[in-house]
UniProtKB/TrEMBL annotation:
Keyword hit for Kinase: no
Organism: Pneumocystis wakefieldiae
Coiled-coil residue windows: none
Key words, A-Z: GTP-binding, Hydrolase, Membrane, Nucleotide-binding, Transmembrane, Transmembrane helix
Catalytic activity field: GTP + H2O = GDP + phosphate + H(+)
Protein name, entry field: dynamin GTPase
Family: Belongs to the TRAFAC class dynamin-like GTPase superfamily. Dynamin/Fzo/YdjA family.
């Protein structure tokens, strides 16, 4: 029975074990299944949303593609319609004519007339197509010629602009078109008509007070804008151009009224030719009461400066003024007596009769080799729109006026219209530049050889840039800074602080002890008395609560600033105010940043000494020796000061002054003598047996206070070195790099380099060499291309 019970119990245990094991297995299977299901859902979700995003992206790309294609075909369709519009309209007209023509019954019945009509119509369309093709071929030929001329002129103007960047370039300057005329001649209107925009200031007073060097650049972009290179203003609208020019003109002082400093303006437009103009102040006959009496002569001198060879003179005269009274022709005749490089422009042709206008242009009494061109540069104000080019309006007005007089239209030797003037100016400027090109080429080669030789002899062909010069300056500065750091460390800081605190102790002793006569007679009162204990405790408290943190930090800051100021005044930096300012400012910024944290840490370090100071016998003995040295040094200083005072006023007078005590110097002498006596007395006392042990510290406050100073200095110096000086040594070179290397603009670098005459001379020579080489290469390329084009023309 017992065995059965035991066996049943064992079976029960085994069953429970199996159940528990099966449960564990079941739970583990469930968790694995759930994990797999979750992973499938997560992966599927990611793939689903990723696929949706990808499909949306592809849809957007496809939409964009369709939109672009649609716009492309719309533009293409419009272009095709525009091209065939004229043919379609002509054919529609012919068809309508044919319909109306065939309405007549006798025409419909006559087959011969119908065939004749079809023949004439087909011949008309064939002739029209042939004419159209011929005009297209001519247009292509003209476009090719114009593009070659345009490229040649553009290349010549590029060379001219390169040579203008060279200082003292009088020997190899290419010609410009100089516009001269009286104030009422309309020269500003001529320039605006050529450009097709109103951009020059207007007014009854003299508005052009400075020469305007105007460079027109033909572009293939639709945007029209201006640039002022000297002002670093780019893409300036024409409204703003007018305002800037007016501001620059009125910036001339009232006393001067005009200035020879030019305003440089570049205009970029698809509607302008590549030309260079110089617009000058207009001539005046008499000056007004608010104008200086010398204004007329100054304007004449300014204009004569610009109309010298090789410049082309654009002499503007009004048609309603006889050419014999033209100021522009009169002045140009002085520098160009044969009229070889002068072109006459007669404005306001609509103010005279066509017959008189024609006679003016054909007048042989004042012949010019380049001839005259008559223009009507004014246009109706109702047509004017500042946002549109007005060249077409001017051209239309001129054609309407000049076509009404047959002699203008039938005479090839009579040039009229702004469009004609543009063509003549392009050709004249190109011819003039090409004529000067060969001569200038030789001059540039010779100048380049001289500059290269000078660079080799004087600078050993060492290439120097503004950036290199600044880097060398910074290297010199860092070297001097390194030397300063090597000669100024913990030991120097310790000596400086010790001296200043020792002086504070001497002043404290003089105030609290040396004026008290009882200290010199110790027999009257014991030094163990409470009076002397309080006196020493008060002196220690005054010293430790003096504000040591501010005192020593301020002292060290002042010394570092002074040393950096000395470095900034050295020869290498004295010519560069910005560099000196950067040295001083960097020093001040770093020291100011670290000042408060240094003060706080020094004050925290000396806080224990404000309550208790322990001194052992060894410290006392060393302090005693140091005190003796301090007193001896102070005695020597008093003796030296007394000696200098005696030499200043004489030995005989000094005795009288000391006895009478009537002058300030006598009082100084008495003070020095008294101080010397006190110091000698205290020195003897410190050497005596009474000051041999620390237990007699109340007898010898000089020794105890010196030890206090030593402890204060020892604990302050590490914080001053780590928190202030080491941080300054670490940050200063980096701060300097940010100021003088990384954050300087090219203009600032150029200004700093130009402050050194030798460096400026070398950089200018290098720049001159680069510009000469560039101009030479462009001239050679231009001469080669022109030779090739001439060869092609001669072959054809």
């Amino acid at each position: 029975m017992k065995q059965k019970l035991v066996k049943g119990f064992d079976n029960l245990l085994n069953g429970s074990r199996c159940v528990s094991i099966s449960r564990i297995i079941a739970f583990s299977l469930i968790s694995k299944t759930v994990y797999k299901i979750l992973r499938i859902f997560i992966v599927g979700g990611l793939l689903f949303f990723g696929g949706i995003n990808y499909i949306n992206y592809k849809i957007e790309v496809f939409k964009s593609y369709l939109k672009n294609m649609f716009n492309y075909y719309i533009i293409l369709f419009k272009t095709i319609l525009e091209c065939i519009k004229q043919d379609i309209l002509s054919k529609i007209g012919a068809f309508i004519f044919k319909k109306s023509f065939l309405k007549c019954s006798f025409v419909r019945e006559d087959s011969f007339i119908l065939k004749l009509y079809d023949f004439i119509l087909s011949s008309f369309f064939s002739l029209n197509l042939s004419q159209k093709r011929n005009s297209e071929i001519c247009m292509l030929d003209n476009t090719s010629d114009n593009s070659q001329t345009m490229l040649l002129t553009k290349g010549l103007i590029e060379i001219r602009n390169i040579l203008k960047q060279i200082k003292h370039n009088e020997n190899f300057s290419l010609p410009s078109i100089v516009v001269i005329g009286s104030q009422s001649s309309g020269k500003s209107s001529v320039l605006e008509a050529i450009i097709g925009r109103e951009f020059l200031p207007k007014g009854t007073d003299m508005v052009t007070r400075r020469p305007i060097e105007l460079t027109l650049v033909h572009t293939f972009e639709s945007d029209e804008y201006g640039e002022f290179p000297d002002l670093e203003q780019k893409k300036v609208s024409f409204d703003q151009i007018q305002k800037v020019i007016a501001d620059l003109n009125y910036s001339v002082p009232e006393n001067d009224y005009i200035s020879d400093e030019p305003i440089r303006l570049n205009i970029f437009s698809p509607n302008v030719p590549d030309l260079t103009f110089i617009d000058l102040p207009g001539y005046i006959q008499i000056q007004s009461k608010d104008q200086p009496s010398s204004l007329k002569d100054r304007i004449t001198a300014l204009c004569e400066k610009y109309i010298q060879e090789p410049n082309i003179i654009l002499a503007v005269s009004s048609a309603d003024v006889d050419l014999a009274n033209s100021v522009a022709l009169h002045v140009s005749r002085k520098v160009d007596p044969h009229g070889i490089r002068t072109i006459g422009v007669v404005t306001k042709m609509d103010l005279v009769t066509p017959e008189r206008g024609f006679n003016i242009l054909k007048d042989m009494n004042y012949p010019l080799n380049l001839g005259y061109v008559g223009v009507i540069s004014k246009f109706s104000q109702s047509f004017f729109d500042k946002n549109n080019n007005v060249s077409d309006l001017i051209d239309k007005n001129e054609k309407e006026y000049f076509s009404s007089f047959c002699r203008f239209s039938n005479n090839n030797d009579c040039f009229v219209g702004v469009a004609t003037l543009k063509k003549k100016l392009i050709q004249i400027l190109e011819d003039s530049m090409v004529q000067n090109l060969q001569n200038i080429y030789g001059i540039i080669r010779l100048e380049l050889e001289q500059v290269s030789y000078q660079l080799k002899v004087e600078y050993n062909d060492r290439f120097l840039t503004q950036e290199v010069y600044m880097a060398e300056l910074v290297d010199i500065l860092k070297y001097r800074f390194k030397k300063f750091v090597e000669n100024f460390g913990k030991s120097q800081i310790r000596l400086i602080l010790k001296d200043i605190l020792n002086q504070k102790v001497l002043n404290l002793l003089a105030e609290r002890y040396w004026l008290d006569q009882s200290i010199f007679n110790s027999s009257k009162k014991s030094f163990d008395d409470v009076y002397w204990k309080d006196k020493l405790d008060t002196s220690i408290s005054s010293l430790t609560k003096l504000g040591i943190g501010r005192l020593v930090t301020g002292l060290l800051t002042s010394i570092i600033s002074s040393e950096m100021e000395k470095i900034s005044q050295e020869n290498q930096f004295k010519d560069h105010p910005y560099v000196r300012q950067s040295i001083v400012q960097s020093t001040q910024d770093i020291l100011k940043e670290k000042y408060h944290s240094t003060v706080e840490q020094v004050e925290n370090s000396i806080k224990p000494y404000k309550y208790e100071i322990d001194v052992d016998e060894d410290e006392w003995e060393l302090g005693r020796k140091r005190s003796q040295k301090i007193l001896k040094k102070e005695i020597e200083m008093c003796q030296d000061a007394f000696r200098k005072l005696k030499e200043t006023i004489g030995s005989k007078k000094i005795e009288k002054i000391v006895n009478l005590i009537v002058t300030e110097k006598g009082q100084q002498a008495i003070f020095l003598k008294n101080r010397e006596n006190i110091l000698n007395t205290r020195l003897k006392f410190i050497k005596s047996e009474k000051c041999k042990s620390v237990v007699n510290k109340y007898h010898c406050p000089e020794v105890f206070l010196e030890i206090v100073v030593k402890k204060l200095v020892d604990i302050s110096v590490p914080f001053l070195d780590v928190v202030l000086f080491s941080e300054f040594v670490h940050q200063f070179p980096r701060n300097l790099d940010n100021r003088l290397i990384y954050n300087l603009t090219s203009e600032q670098l150029e200004k700093i380099a130009n402050e050194n005459f030798e460096i400026k001379k070398q950089i200018d020579l290098q720049k001159k060499k680069v510009l000469l080489e560039l101009a030479l290469n462009k001239i050679e390329s231009l001469m080669l291309s022109k030779k090739i084009s001439y060869d092609k023309i001669s072959k054809n």
